[in-house]
UniProtKB/TrEMBL annotation:
PROSITE patterns: PDZ. This is PDZ domain-containing protein. Residues 100-193 form the PDZ domain. Pfam families: PDZ_1 (PF12812), PDZ_2 (PF13180). Gene3D superfamilies: 2.30.42.10. InterPro entries: PDZ, PDZ-like_dom, PDZ_sf, Peptidase_S1_PA.
Amino acid sequence: ILAGTLARLDREAPHYKKDGYNDFNTFYMQAASGTKGGSSGSPVVDCQGRAVALNAGSKSSSASAFFLPLERVVRALNLIRDCWDAFGIKSESVYIPRGTLQMTFQHKGFEETRRLGLRNETEQMVRLVSPAGETGMLVVDSVVPEGPAHKHLEPGDVLVHINGEVVTQFLAMETLLDDSVGKEVNLQIERGGVPLTVKLEVEDLHSITPNHFLEVSGAVIHPLSYQQARNFRFKCGLVYVAEAGYMLSRASVPRHSIIKKFAGEDIENLDDLIAVISKLSRGARVPLEYVKYTDRYRNKSVLVTIDQHGWYAPPQLYTRNDATGLWNAKLAIPLESPFVVSHRAGHMDANLNSVSPLTESSPMDLKCQHESENTADGCVKMQTDEEIAVDGSHSGEDSIIEKKRRRVDEEIAAEGTISSFGDLDDIKDGALRHPSSVEGSDLARTISSNASLAEQVIEPALVMFEVHVPPICMLDGVHSQHFFGTGVIIYHSDCLGLVAVDRNTVAVSISDIMLSFAAYPIEIPAEVVFLHPVHNFALVAYDPSALGAGASVIRAAKLLPEPALRRGDSVYLVGLSRSLQATSRKSTITNPCTAVNIGSADCPRYRAINMEVIELDTDFGSSFSGILTDEQGRVQALWASFSTQLKYGCSSSEDHQFVRGIPIYAISQVLEKIISGTPGPFRLINGIRRPMPLVRLLEVELYPTLLSKARSYGLSDNWVQ
C-alpha cells in the first residue's frame, strides 16, 4: 500500500505512444505515489477505503502516478446493473451508449484562450456560470479527417456552448455526447474572436471501433480504428495493417501501413481487399501500394507474392461476438475462388508426391548436360541465323535483337573480346548460336574488355538467390528469415533446371525461393530438392518453361571435378553483385583441403561437419560468394558461405559467417545420381516424379589432429608410418 497526496485533479491524459493506445478528452489525477509498472488497474482509495480512481500509469523518471477518475466507470456499471435488473438475469451483453465527434479537446487556461481570440464578454459569462475555481475552457486540438467535425471545426476553436449549455469540463461534454448518439448537437464556438454555431451529428463510438479483422498469411488487417485514425490523422475505416505477417513483411510492407491499391485496384475498405484476394491464385505476384503515417504524402509500391506453398490457411475473417466474448472465424473468400482452389491443388500435389503413380522420368530424359561436349543436348533447340532468316513469323523485337547481335559481332571483331553467351567452344568457333541471347543483356557489360574470359563464359550460369523463411517454419535453429546468395546452374534442360548453392543461403527446404538470372532479366520461383545433411550445399530446382525466351540464353556451367585443385593453382573467383553484374577476381589456392571445424551453437541448428574446403591467398570478404573456375570458365569449386556462432564470455554470442571453397566433385556426385535415376525416395519436381539420392552417414563427427596426438590415443607405429 503506497500513500500519496493528490496534487492535481485536472491533469491532461498521459501520452503513452504515438502509434498505440492513448487516452484523451478526460482529466486525470496526479500524485507522487511512486507506483511502478504492473500496478495498473489497482484502486486508488481515500482514507475511508472508498475507491475514487483507477491507477492507470506512471512516469519512470519521477515518482508521479496518474489516476483515471471513476465517473464514467460508474455510469457504465449502473447501465449494466439496470439491464440485469430489467431482465431478471445477467444478460450476455449490454450496450453502453458512447458518442463521439471524432475530435480531441484540450483544457486551456483563460490566459491562453484570450490569446486565441476569446472575447472578454464571453470569458466573463463563462466565469459567472461556471463552478467556483474554474480556470479555463476546452479548445479544439485536432480533428479526424472525414469525421463529423471535419471541415466544421478547426484546431484553436474555443468551445463555449453545447445545446445552449456552457461546457468547460470534459465530464460535462462527454455526458452530453453519450446521451446524444445518433442525434444532432449545436456547438457554439469562438474562432479568433468570431462567434460561430455549427450543427454536428454525434457518431456511435462503437461503430468506428473495429469488431472484425482479416487474417491472411499471418497478416492481421482490419479497418482503421478511431484510436489510430486520431494518431495518424487518417480517416476511420481505411485498410490498416496491424501485423504484417509473412506475405506482407516479405514485400517489406511495415506495420501501421495503410493499403491504398492492390493488384491495380483501389482499396477503400476491407471488403475491397477481400474481393481482390479472392481473384488471385497462389504464387501470383501483384503490386501493392501503401502509405505510412510517418511519410503520409508519398505512396510506396512493392511486389507482393501470394503464399504459393500453403504455409498458411486460406484467408480467415474473425468477427467479435459480444454475446459470448469470443471471436468467430469463417472463410473470408468463396470456396470456388482461385485462391482456395489453388490452395487445394497444392495440397493434392503434395499428396501425389508420395502416392500418385505419375509417369517417372527415365535416365535418358535426364541426360547429364555437364558431361556432354555438345551444349545443345540438354538445352532448348537453338535456331541458326539461316532459320531465322527463313522464318518470317518473328516479331519486330526479334529484328531489333538481330541488329544488336550484328553490332556485337562487329564490336567483338574490332576489339577481340568474347561474348558472355555461349560456352568456350562457341567462343572459339566465333559463332553465336542464338541471336536472342543478346536480349535482356547489358551490351556494355557483355563486351567489356575488362571482363575475364572465365567471367564471360560462366555468367549465363550464375543465379542470384533471394530466400524467405516463413515465421511458422523457423525450424532446425534457422537464424534468419531472409537470405541472399549466389548459385550456379549445374543442369539445364527442357523440363528441369538445377542450381547448386550453399546452405547459408538455403538453410531449410520449407522456404520461398526466388531466382534472378544474370544472363536474362527474369525472376522465377524455385524449390529445394536436395539438402546435404552434413556438407554445406543444397540443390534447388526451377522450371525452365517459366523462363520464356530466356531458356535458350541460360545454360548450365561445365563442371570440372578432376583433377582436384592443388596448392599454388590459379583460379578465378566469379560472383554476382546485388545488381546482377558478374565480378571476377584471380586468386591462388593456398590450402586445397582445410578441415572445417565449426563449434556447436547455443540453439541446435545445421552446421557443416566432416568436410574439407579450399582456402585462397586473398580475403575477398565474408559476404562475397560465387564459384571458383579455371581460365576457361569450368567450375572447380563452389565458393560457399558458412554459418557459425561466435561466443563472447559465458552468456553472449552472435552469428558469424565466412566463405570457403567446396570442391565441385562433391556436388557432381549427387548430380550424377539424380541424372542417372539412382534408386531413392521420389520427389515431385515440375510435375515429374524423380528419385533423390540417399546419403549414407556414419553418425560421427570427425576432426583433424596431429599424428603426435593420435599416437597418444593408441595409434600404432605402423599406422603412424
